[in-house]
């Protein structure tokens, strides 16, 4: 970061910043100590020369990319083992160690599923005896695993999974089978050629009865030779939109036997004689997914923040067109339409990170209660994690695309890193529960809550308590303030929940079954769920910044408050139709909102570069020609272009082979 080499526009922008950058960085990390720890970890990782590349991945084959990713994943895993020694598996806050992946593996680690879902399932769904056998082996990579749930025919509808595990009391074994093509496991990360074990979700059959899906730990490859075991058909599913190095795989079984003790028995059990003992709640089998959904909210925030840094720095460096005749071309960051595209994504990066940490903390509290045998808060956590995973990945994906568009043609270059970031967040809209399906899960909870309210029950869970205020006519008045806007969103959510409830009830009254009525009302249900989620994001973001302001300096606090207000006003304008329909706002209030929005853009403009610097992503992590700290955009674009293998020779052989003969033929 030598200032002499930094682009002059960026130097000027940084000089304008009104707050202390270090203070913002510590705030983003969650404290000065965490910043130092993170930076030390980054230094250690980035000093390893075996993690650096000469050739950009884009020019490598699928196989080469995978092999390099595995080599790097081994180095990173070893580092992580040292770094995380004595740290709990579920730390107090989401870990920053994955943020280094874009600087090293670039795409997804083939060990990602091992480090997340495999370990989390062992931790969460094995009984103590099983944990003693498996957890340290998995942590030390003596066994490497993945989470194999999805099948070719079913990802969403878990009750429809077809893989079977049939208990044989004679040998005290389960026999695994893949009865149809659609029963093949399909998608699990690392499954193709990396892992030797899997958590398999299969329909449990014992004593002639099916007991629904249960998790099993299954060895699929020999630990010495890595050859698939007899009865196992495993491979990789091929190239995708992104995730090229994730090694997603397929897997089928033919009469494959595993010992009884390989069923994960923390919740349900199969006794030696085949007797099935059911769990307190069959939903506990889905526990790993809840943890991972919560984590995805945090990943999405990081990815959007990266995109915002790239697009804002580029917009400070890029000059185009004319604002005033006979004046130099302005920075594109000075166009108000550009500010509209970018500043909301800075605000959203903060909002989602903050909500993600709040959700993480909430989840740890619920897990603690579950460990004590109290499942009361699980439905609320499930409803929250579903809608937040869906809305946050949706907003971040849209935000990254907006950042890409804000970079014009250069945003379309892979070297900008925006396409890769997009490919990751858009995948997150599908994996770990397809977003529409998850929104419908939350809607199910909201409709139950609404029924409770109609029945006069006022004992609601904290995140839906606001609905009570809107169940009867109220005297609330719209106000163009943060709290007023949040109340407006609450009115929208309550109004949409009521409308969806009434629609479903109307269909039932007309003779439809509950299920048909649900499907007929499902567009409204999804919208109600999104509106409820917006209330949660707005409330948590606003409250947490308000609380933090007590300890932050006035300058930083002021800028963060501006971001909160921008977020609220942006969404009020985006959803003005809904607000006009469901709250007490009048159309005469809208121009004031619009004026305030434009004022906020102008207020944030001088701090735009400072704000994205505050996310504190190293150049290696951003991995972008457009977003580097020094703003040498054009030099980097040219340097990267020159790495194309096509530029290694002045004339490509295809000219002599095809073009020249073709031209000659055309002459005749
Ligand atoms: C620069 C930045 C750098 C950042 C670096 C970042 C690096 C990023 C790396 C990314 C790597 C990504 C790895 C990818 C991992 C993907 C792994 C997967 O997809 S794995 C595969 C993931 N696959 C999926 O996610 C599958 C999605 N499907 C499902 O989860 C379920 O089948 C279902 C929920 C849709 C329905 O299930 P069904 O059995 O039909 O249930 P019903 O509907 O009939 O509801 C019955 C009752 O149960 C209740 N309940 C339900 N669930 C839960 C729960 N979890 N808990 C509690 N309760 C739950 C429900 O509320 C209801 O309650 P009530 O009303 O009766 O009281
Ligand atoms: C990059 C990536 C990594 C993955 N990694 C893993 C992994 O490691 N392990 C693993 O087990 N799986 C993994 N998956 C699979 C993933 O979890 C599933 O793809 C996901 O759960 C969606 O299921 P599906 O593909 O069956 O979609 P579908 O359910 O077939 O969805 C298709 C459409 O149908 C709609 N739909 C389906 N059901 C309903 C309904 N009830 N109501 C309304 N609409 C509905 C959906 O909204 C969607 O529009 C991964 C997927 C991806 C893309």
TrEMBL record:
Entries under SUPFAM superfamilies matching the protein: Acyl-CoA dehydrogenase C-terminal domain-like, Acyl-CoA dehydrogenase NM domain-like
Keyword vocabulary terms for this entry: FAD, Fatty acid metabolism, Flavoprotein, Lipid metabolism, Oxidoreductase, Peroxisome
Active site: 432
Record GO cellular component, one term: peroxisome
Cofactor: FAD
Domain Acyl-CoA oxidase C-terminal residue range list: 483-664
Places the protein is found: Peroxisome
Gene3D superfamilies recorded: Acyl-CoA dehydrogenase/oxidase, N-terminal domain, Butyryl-CoA Dehydrogenase, subunit A, domain 2, Butyryl-CoA Dehydrogenase, subunit A, domain 3
Domain Acyl-coenzyme A oxidase N-terminal: 21-144
Occurrences of domain Acyl-CoA oxidase C-alpha1 (ranges): 286-447
Pathway given in the UniProt record: Lipid metabolism; peroxisomal fatty acid beta-oxidation
List of residues binding FAD: 150, 189
Annotated GO MF terms: acyl-CoA oxidase activity; FAD binding; fatty acid binding
A GO biological-process term: lipid homeostasis
Principal location: other
Family per record: Belongs to the acyl-CoA oxidase family.
Protein name listed in UniProt: Acyl-coenzyme A oxidase
Organism expressing this protein natively: Galleria mellonella (Greater wax moth)
């Amino acid at each position: 970061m030598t200032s002499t080499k930094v682009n002059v526009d960026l130097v000027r922008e940084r000089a304008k910043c009104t707050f202390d950058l270090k203070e913002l960085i510590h705030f983003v990390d969650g404290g000065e100590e965490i910043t130092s720890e993170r930076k030390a970890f980054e230094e250690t990782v980035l000093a390893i020369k075996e993690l650096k590349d000469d050739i950009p991945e884009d020019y490598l084959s699928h196989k080469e990319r995978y092999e390099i990713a595995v080599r790097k994943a081994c180095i990173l895993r070893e580092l992580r083992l040292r770094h995380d020694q004595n740290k709990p598996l579920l730390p107090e806050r989401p870990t920053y160690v994955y943020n280094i992946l874009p600087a090293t593996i670039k795409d997804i680690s083939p060990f990602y599923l091992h480090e997340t879902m495999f370990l989390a399932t062992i931790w969460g769904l094995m009984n103590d005896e099983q944990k003693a056998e498996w957890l340290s082996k998995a942590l030390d990579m003596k066994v490497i695993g993945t989470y194999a749930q999805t099948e070719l025919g079913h990802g969403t509808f878990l009750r429809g999974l077809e893989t079977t595990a049939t208990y044989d009391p004679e040998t005290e074994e389960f026999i695994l089978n893949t009865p149809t093509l659609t029963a093949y496991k399909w998608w699990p990360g690392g499954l193709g050629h990396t892992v030797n074990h899997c958590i398999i979700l299969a329909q449990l059959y014992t004593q002639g009865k099916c007991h629904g899906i249960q998790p099993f730990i299954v060895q699929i490859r020999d630990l010495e030779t890595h050859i698939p075991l007899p009865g196992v058909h495993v491979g990789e599913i091929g190239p995708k939109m992104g995730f090229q190095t994730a090694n997603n795989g397929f897997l089928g079984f033919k009469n494959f036997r595993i010992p009884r003790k390989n069923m994960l028995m923390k919740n349900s059990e199969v006794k030696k004689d085949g007797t099935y003992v059911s769990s307190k709640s069959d939903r506990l089998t889905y526990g790993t997914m809840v943890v991972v959904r919560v984590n995805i909210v945090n990943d999405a925030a990081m990815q959007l923040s990266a995109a915002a840094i790239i697009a804002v720095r580029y917009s400070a460096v890029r000059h185009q067109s004319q604002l005033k005749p006979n004046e130099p071309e302005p920075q594109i960051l000075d166009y108000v339409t550009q500010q509209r595209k970018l500043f909301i994504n800075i605000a959203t990066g903060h909002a989602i990170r903050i909500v993600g940490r709040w959700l993480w903390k909430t989840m740890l509290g619920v897990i603690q209660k579950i460990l004590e045998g109290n499942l009361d808060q699980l439905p609320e956590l499930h409803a929250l994690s579903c809608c937040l995973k869906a809305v946050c990945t949706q907003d971040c994906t849209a935000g990254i695309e907006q950042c890409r568009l804000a970079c014009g043609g250069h945003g379309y270059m892979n070297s900008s890193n925006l396409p890769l970031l997009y490919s990751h967040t858009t995948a997150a809209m599908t994996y770990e529960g397809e977003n529409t399906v998850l929104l419908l899960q939350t809607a199910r909870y909201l409709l139950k809550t609404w029924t409770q309210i109609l029945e006069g029950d006022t004992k609601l869970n904290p995140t839906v308590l606001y609905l009570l205020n809107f169940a009867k006519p109220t005297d609330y008045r719209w106000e163009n303030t943060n709290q007023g806007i949040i109340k407006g969103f609450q009115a929208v959510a309550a109004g949409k929940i009521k409308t969806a409830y009434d629609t479903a009830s109307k269909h039932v009254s007309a003779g439809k079954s509950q299920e048909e009525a649900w499907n007929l009302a499902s567009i409204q249900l999804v919208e109600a769920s999104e509106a409820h989620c917006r209330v949660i994001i707005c409330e948590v973001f606003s409250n947490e910044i308000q609380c933090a302001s007590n300890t932050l300096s006035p300058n930083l606090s002021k800028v963060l408050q501006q971001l909160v207000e921008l977020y609220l006003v942006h969404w009020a304008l985006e959803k003005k139709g809904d607000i006009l329909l469901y709250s007490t706002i009048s159309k005469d209030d809208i121009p004031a909102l619009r004026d305030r929005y434009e004022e906020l853009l102008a207020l944030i403009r001088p701090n735009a570069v400072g704000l994205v610097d505050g996310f504190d992503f190293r150049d290696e992590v951003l991995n972008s020609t457009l977003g580097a700290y020094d703003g040498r955009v054009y030099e980097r674009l040219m340097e990267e272009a020159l790495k194309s293998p096509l530029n290694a020779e002045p004339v490509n052989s295809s000219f002599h082979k095809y073009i020249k003969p073709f031209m000659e033929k055309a002459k005749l």
